[in-house]
Amino acid sequence: MKILITGGAGFVGQRIAMECLRRGELDIADKSIETIVLTDNADPPFWHDGIREDSRVTTSFGDISGNHYVQSLFNDQFDVIFHLASIVSGHGETDFDLAMRVNLDGTRYLFEQVRAQENNARVVFASSVASFGGDGMPDSIDDNTKQTPRTTYGMTKVIGELLVNDYSRKGFFDGRSARLPTVIVRPGKPNLAASSFISGLFREPLNGENGVIPVDPSLQTPVLGYRSVANGIIKLAELDPDVLGTDRAVGLPAFNVSVQEMMDALKRAAGNRHLGEHVLKRDEAIAAICESWPKHANTKRGLEMGLPMESSLDEIVTHYIEDYLDAS
Ligand SMILES: NC(=O)c1ccc[n+]([C@@H]2O[C@H](COP(=O)([O-])OP(=O)(O)OC[C@H]3O[C@@H](n4cnc5c(N)ncnc54)[C@H](O)[C@@H]3O)[C@@H](O)[C@H]2O)c1
C-alpha cells in the first residue's frame, strides 16, 4: 500500500505518519504499508524521531497550489491519501488570496490527480469545527448542522467537504472528511491558527513560560488529543463506505470544555512539575474568531463509528508530558 500525506511535515501529518509506521498495515484490503510520501512546502520546526530514518518514508517539498507540482507527486499510484495541507484559520483571515489558492485550488488539483488514477483510492480530507459559525448556529452542533462559517478558512473547509462528497458520489475516489476540533497539545511553537493559544496554555507553562490567554476563560470549545486525532483519521480511512453513507463528513469525538477547565486540568496532570503562569491578555481579533466557533459538539455519530477519544483532559496532558517532555 502506498500512502500520500499532504501537509505531511505538519503537526497532525507527522502524527499520522508515525502511527501508520508503527502499525505497519492499515485495515484496508489487508495491505501492508510499502511507502509513505510526506509532501509539504515548508520544513517543520522539528521532525519526530524515526520518521525520516524509516526506509518506507520519502519526503517531497513543493507548493500544493501549483498544479505541476501536484501532478509530479502522482508518478506513484497511491491507495490512501490524507489531505492535511492547509492555510490555517488566522492566516486565512489575513491573506484571503493565499487561502483560496492553497485550500481550494490545491485541493482541486489534488483531487483531480487522485481521480485520474482510477483506482477508487481512499481519501481523508482534514476539515474543522471552524466550518460552523454564524448567527443561526445552535448551541450544540452535530454532523447535520448547517455550516455557515465566519472565516475564509471555514468556508474553504466546507467546500472541501462538499467536493469529497461529490467525488465519492461520482465514484472518482472513496472519500471521507474528518471534522477536527482543536487538537491539543501542539508541540514546539505556536502556529497561525487562532486557536493556537489553546495548546500554548498547556505547553508554555510546562516549559516554565507564561501561557497567554487572549479570550475570556469561560470560552468553551471542543478539543481532542493528538493521539486520538491521528487514530481517528486513520480509522475513518479504514471504515467501510457503507458505514458512512452519502454524507462523508464526520465530526471527530471531542471534549466540550472551557479554557478555565483546560487550565485546571494542566495543574492536576502536571503534579509537582514547576509551571509557568497563565496571563490573561485579551486579543480582540483572536477572541472574535474563537467566539464565532461552536461551543459544543455532539459527536455521537463519530463515536458510534468507533472513532476514539481519550478518557479525560488530564490523560491528554499526561500523553504530552510522556511523548514530548519526558521522552526528550
Ligand atoms: N491542529 C488543529 O487544531 C486543527 C483543528 C481543525 C482542523 N485542522 C486541520 O488539520 C490539518 C492539519 O493541521 P495541523 O495542525 O497539522 O496544521 P499544520 O500547520 O501543523 O500543518 C499543515 C501543513 O500544511 C502545510 N502547507 C501549508 N501551505 C501549503 C502549501 N501551499 N503546499 C504544501 N503544504 C502546505 C504547512 O507547511 C504545514 O506543515 C489542516 O488541514 C488543518 O486545517 C487542524
Textual characterization of the structure:
- The chain is 41% helix and 20% strand.
- It is of the alpha/beta class.
- It folds into two domains: 2-180 and 225-251, NAD(P)-binding Rossmann-like Domain (Rossmann fold, 3-Layer(aba) Sandwich), CATH 3.40.50.720; 184-222 and 255-297 and 310-326, UDP-galactose 4-epimerase, domain 1, CATH 3.90.25.
- It has a seven-stranded parallel β-sheet, with helices on both faces. It has a three-stranded mixed β-sheet with strand order 10-12-14. A two-stranded antiparallel ribbon has the order 2-3.
- α4 (96-117) runs parallel beside α5 (152-169), α6 packs parallel to α9 and α9 (259-270) packs across α12 (313-326).
- The longest helix is centred in the N-terminal third of the chain and has 22 residues, at 96-117.
- The protein starts with a strand and ends with a helix.
- The model has no long low-confidence stretch (mean pLDDT 96).
Please describe the structure with a list of short key phrases separated by commas or semicolons.
328 residues; alpha/beta; UDP-galactose 4-epimerase, domain 1; 7-stranded parallel sheet; 3-stranded mixed sheet; 12 helices; globular; binds nicotinamide-adenine-dinucleotide
